[in-house]
Design a protein that fits this description.
globular, Nucleotidyltransferase, domain 5, 135 residues, alpha/beta, 4 helices
């Protein structure tokens, strides 16, 4: 199964890809100008990589969970993705991404951190699947 993870933000959309359960690759982030432009670019990437499922980071358990899921559903409706959409807790993924690249690059807001965050979200999701298959 081929996956794309999305770390959906108001300015940048981080993306990561996996076709193997053990390898996740961050992709170039989409710089968001407006939701139509962003959804068109994300759809193009999903189609290009022939994705079966999308994993979207969401803050689970918080007071904003329902609102975020509503926004994500609206965005994915604009993307017009026909495959499965899964939610994965994104808690701490941005901080973890920043720690991974600390000292490697300056804190340029070009989407690299957002895509590494998407990579972490997808790694968490794939780990969860792997663990559930063992039981």
């Amino acid at each position: 199964m081929k996956y794309i993870a999305i770390d959906l933000g108001l300015k940048r959309i981080g993306l990561a890809y996996s076709a193997h359960k053990d390898i996740v690759t961050p992709l170039k982030a989409v710089i968001r100008k407006n939701r139509n432009q962003a959804s068109t670019e994300v759809k193009k990437i999903i189609d290009e990589w022939e994705v079966d499922a999308v994993v979207v980071g969401v803050p689970l358990g918080g007071s904003s969970e329902d609102e975020m899921k509503r926004r994500i559903a609206h965005f994915m409706n604009l993307v017009d993705f026909k495959g499965e959409v899964f939610f994965q807790d994104e808690a701490g993924s941005s901080k973890e991404a920043e720690a991974l690249i600390k000292g490697e690059i300056k804190q340029i807001r070009d989407g690299r951190i957002d895509s590494i965050s998407a990579m972490i979200i997808l790694q968490r999701y794939l780990r969860k699947i792997k663990q559930s298959q063992k039981t």
